[in-house]
Amino acid sequence: MTYFEDYIVGESHSSYGRTVTETDIVAHAGQTGDFYPHHMDAEFCSTQPFGQRMAHGTLILSVAIGMLAGEINEEAMSYGYDRVRFIAPVFIGDTIRARAELVEMLDHPRQPERFGMAHERVTVTNQRGETVLALTKIYVVNRRPADKVSPTASHNESGL
Amino acid sequence: MTYFEDYIVGESHSSYGRTVTETDIVAHAGQTGDFYPHHMDAEFCSTQPFGQRMAHGTLILSVAIGMLAGEINEEAMSYGYDRVRFIAPVFIGDTIRARAELVEMLDHPRQPERFGMAHERVTVTNQRGETVLALTKIYVVNRRPADKVSPTASHNESGL
Amino acid sequence: MTYFEDYIVGESHSSYGRTVTETDIVAHAGQTGDFYPHHMDAEFCSTQPFGQRMAHGTLILSVAIGMLAGEINEEAMSYGYDRVRFIAPVFIGDTIRARAELVEMLDHPRQPERFGMAHERVTVTNQRGETVLALTKIYVVNRRPADKVSPTASHNESGL
Amino acid sequence: MTYFEDYIVGESHSSYGRTVTETDIVAHAGQTGDFYPHHMDAEFCSTQPFGQRMAHGTLILSVAIGMLAGEINEEAMSYGYDRVRFIAPVFIGDTIRARAELVEMLDHPRQPERFGMAHERVTVTNQRGETVLALTKIYVVNRRPADKVSPTASHNESGL
Amino acid sequence: MTYFEDYIVGESHSSYGRTVTETDIVAHAGQTGDFYPHHMDAEFCSTQPFGQRMAHGTLILSVAIGMLAGEINEEAMSYGYDRVRFIAPVFIGDTIRARAELVEMLDHPRQPERFGMAHERVTVTNQRGETVLALTKIYVVNRRPADKVSPTASHNESGL
Amino acid sequence: MTYFEDYIVGESHSSYGRTVTETDIVAHAGQTGDFYPHHMDAEFCSTQPFGQRMAHGTLILSVAIGMLAGEINEEAMSYGYDRVRFIAPVFIGDTIRARAELVEMLDHPRQPERFGMAHERVTVTNQRGETVLALTKIYVVNRRPADKVSPTASHNESGL
């Protein structure tokens, strides 16, 4: 378990890559009900500036969040996202990967003695290294209870 | 087509309702790769405070955005989301609906003569009227070119 | 709500376009259990006159009916289809759109004082304008109860 | 291969049973884009006379046609459906099966020397034996070429 | 119904062909949670010796077993598989077919008077005739009860 | 990277739990084409000894293998499975988890100087701790090249 006190600003992790497929777009239209021709009509898209079908913004967002899901930390809970920005379109065949970097640890506004807020900067890039999506993911994280000594601290102490 | 000048702050529209099903959660896990036991393991969930499997946050977000997709406005483009907040869990069998209200029209920061920004407040509620998700959806909207008179204006003028 | 008396023969509406994908065919095979090599085996199809995998007839029919689903009219109920004809094959990558035209309003055979029958001619075309599917969609529509004056009529009367 | 001359009016075959699941309805909404609350909103449905979510008509039709797909006959080609009638609603958990009976063999209207038309009566029933869907499925069937003797005939002759 | 005594070693049957699609791989990742870049990341794969995305072994196995599912024999029950070997990769666009040959009939180790074991050799080949997967499928099969004469035997006897 | 020399017989790892849903079964039928009434017809199943729909064996196998997919080891390659045994049925709502234990390390039969074979015993249990599936998963693993010293060895040496 990782408590608020264990988080280290600047640490980051990256996902594997994943190619966004026509299947993903059709499945996402089917899940959300958004069958806009920008996603589903190749003929229409060929007449538009972008020239081809684009992935839904919520598809890229959902896949990116999913790709970053790693080990479960029972002491943290998803709170929300800030500044979600769809920076560039993602097309069928593009390969995306996501990177999360811990950028800020804040006190919880109302219960600072119990919780903190972790802000992770999530960046999704395509195979050319272009950023296609960026957002800040916010967690509420438990502070370490007084009766639970950090394993690192304990290790250090035992090393005395 | 609806230009920046045609938007009316305070206008709102609501979606139909949709029941969130086990199928939706399993499909969303499959689309995103997030198979956390909070979503997929009914045994584990029965030992937790929430007692049952919860929908992924990105599922509710994606469905809500999709449910609000109505007529296409070629003069507007999705820009991003602000202050996405997962306020309450959504469980299998809950019925959600989404409502969008235009809350603010802003100048585009860099090209105010060509574009504006529309801020819509999106609220997702369950069958008990509880808000489960809230966010601000931001569009970039084209300003009306000088050579395109508004239909309303034109109508008014012809009424003189 | 739209009653029998409000329908206007000759009125029509058209859907957006949608590209039929390999995903749609694989998903439809999975939903129906029809894995015939005409739909699923590209090697076999390359030896046949049509040369490539074909969409299931029921896929095109289902998508067309779905693409035409617009505003809900609580006063109408789907009754069935007549003369469903699979006129030309649909291949992966074809883009279809559907058009519905109200062609006939009939009395209900047994309860003409309460219901009427609306016949819509549905035509599905591909990106070359070729008709691939045609059918007549039949609804049972409620007649306007005596105590419900048509909004149009009411407007006209108030205009006296 | 079965030619026009081999069909026997009155012959029938039946499918296995299949339980219509919430998954089927959610998947069919996703394939067709029809998310009407009659199919997707359990809260709304509980306020309606039918009381619960109903399967799409095109879902039951597609599944029924798929369930009857048996051995491939290269000498027959699907032509269309007549008199498709949605007789009773199908709800989640209902188990349907389909039965097809050959009811009529007709000459092809324009090329009677080469083709015939086979009319199959398809009936879909639920677990209470109630008919929920009926339709006539029409095939174009090749007549036996003069140089291809029927295997039965050939067997009979060799038996002389 | 087919009893142990009715099985004939050396008999075989083959499936139709089926083209393995990108959709199948994405759906299988979604069903199993295995999103390894070998299956999902076209960029990564292009840097590897195999050069492109590969189907999951369990996808090919599942599809092969499904393709061979024919008439139901209520007297047989799936017991397991032996020597499942992934012999060659299957890529998007490959067309596979499966063949099953009955290779051995054994007594059931503990209840030989009631059951036997049928061993089927399953071979999956691609469009170039290369074997991509091989396994032995094992069934437990009921022996014919003393009071049930074989239809063949009965036919022979009545022919005396 | 983990070479043959780094594997430790007796080591094991376990997956999270996952509830097998009706959705999983319907999706697996759709992926494989196996719509046997044992999986799909609740009415039929209610007349059978097992009383309810059963998951496909290949579904449980595929999910189990997927649930155990952890960190990628580029030095190992899936070879096949031995003694796959379907020990008990899995029903809708059962929660399974998988455990893999390294049970044996063998020389590669033909190229023992380059490769070894790792045998993992995979056991899938349900929420009552009953084993429902067992198999041996076999990998081909690269031996450590002479020019790559093990990090542990190197650490030990540096510790001298």
Question: Overview of this structure, please?
Answer:
6 copies of one chain form a homohexamer. With 160 residues, chain A is α+β, with helices and mostly antiparallel strands. Chain A has a single domain, classed as Thiol Ester Dehydrase, Chain A (Roll). In chain A, 24% of the residues lie in helices and 32% in strands. The first copy, chain A, has helices at 22-32, 37-40, 42-45, 57-68, 151-158, and strands spanning 12-14, 18-19, 76-86, 95-107, 115-125, 131-142. In chain A, strands 1, 2, 3, 4, 5 and 6 form a 6-stranded antiparallel β-sheet that branches. The longest helix of chain A has 12 residues, at 57-68. Chain A is elongated. The two termini of chain A are 25 Å apart. Mean pLDDT of chain A is 91; it is low at 153-160. Chains in contact: A-B, A-C, A-D, A-E, B-D, B-E, B-F, C-D, C-E, C-F, D-F, E-F. Strand 3 (76-86) of chain E pairs antiparallel with strand 3 (76-86) of chain F.
Compact overview of the structure:
6 copies of one chain form a homohexamer. Chain A is an alpha+beta fold.
Task: Itemize the secondary structure elements and their pairings.
6 copies of one chain form a homohexamer.
Chain A lengths: L11 E3 L3 E2 L2 H11 L4 H4 L1 H4 L11 H12 L7 E11 L8 E13 L7 E11 L5 E12 L8 H8 L2
Antiparallel strand pairs in A: 1-4, 2-4, 3-6, 4-5, 5-6
